[in-house]
Amino acid sequence: MKFGAIDIGSNAVRLLIAKVHELDDGRRAVDKLSFYRVPVRLGADVFSDGAISEGKIKHLVKTMKAFWYLMDVHGVEWFHAYATSAMRESSNVKDVVKKVKKAANIDIEPISGDREAELIFGNFAQAVMDTDNDYLYIDVGGGSTELTLIREGERVKSKSFQLGTVRALAGRIPDGEWGAVEAYVENLQSERRPLYAIGTGGNANRLQRLALTPRDEAIPLVQLQAVHDRLAALSVRDRREKYHLRPDRADVIVPAAEIYLRIMTFAGSSHMLVPKVGLVDGMVLDTHDEWKQEELTRKAKKRAKKKEGL
Q1: At 129, is the pLDDT very low, low, confident or very high (cuts 50, 70, 90)?
Q2: Considering the domain 2-113 in this protein, what is its CATH number?
């Protein structure tokens, strides 16, 4: 059984096609078969004008039609398409959803920041964590940042903030938002258990590579700061040429680094783990849960029907 997950973010639209394997110890492993990313950047419109432009809608429709055919040729039977910060804040979201449904036969569901954080937490079975530690999960997107406290391997609380890379580039971070983040993080801290940072998102992955940190090791704060400073000193064009960054990565990577650094400083975190998981991974696991529950219900009905026939 193959599952699909479409994440319609503020910076890019992503499609993950995967299989889910149930392991003997009760955990699940995600076998990523294909991953596609298209830099539609819906947030550039929404955070400046409050709505998605006709040009962006056409780009999104084309992308979703392509994703539909890709899922079809891969034999995907179960999938979801979720939209995050940009679409949930767009004044014409209903019109966009309707146009995509008509042209691509895909139902888009805008989800709340809390739901986004909940799905992201579904990835943690994929990451190696010490249950004796407290972790602050920092997921930086184009329009929002989700912060989740993990204690003894369990999600204790989470909150979504209007901090994002595309939003920052547009100069649309609300007044007082950073103060709210600082207060929230300070309230999570325990004298007995320091907060360790976990960072996800495409920018976190790229920052780790630029820091030359081994994949299974955490990035030291001082090293992340050094990478930020090198990038910030360059123009977007020079970042692209020197570090071989995509155009849609070269401009957002600096504000992303700033968000990670500032939140780590609030938390007193000296290092940040980068487990290479994100929203689409959590979506695949959640869709697998739905499929499994429907299978159990179908089998129960079949047994009941068979019993009635006796």
Answers
A1: low
A2: 3.30.420.40
Distance CA 296, CA 285 (A): 17
Question: What's the average model confidence in pLDDT over 256-274?
Answer: 96
CATH 3.30.420.40 maps onto the chain at 2-113
Phi–psi pair at 45, nearest 5 degrees: -80, -50
Q: CB-based burial of residue 106 (10 Å sphere; 0-12 exposed, 13-18 middle, 19+ buried)? A: buried
**Residue 85 near residue 164, CB atoms below 8 Å:** yes
* Strand ranges of the sheet holding 134-140, from the earlier edge strand across to the other edge: 154-161, 145-151, 134-140, 195-200, 271-273, 219-220
Q: Where in the chain is the domain with CATH 3.30.420.150?
A: 128-273
From its phi and psi, is residue 152 left (phi > 0), alpha (psi between -120 and 50) or beta? left
CATH class of 128-273: alpha beta
Q: How far is CA 113 from the centre of its chain?
A: 11
CA distance 69 to 29: 26
For residue 152, what pLDDT band results from cuts at 50, 70 and 90? Answer: confident
Helix axes 177-188, 253-267, angle to 10 degrees: 40
pLDDT, tens only, 270-293: 999 998 878 899 999 999 999 999
The alpha-carbon radius of gyration of the chain (Å, integer) is: 20
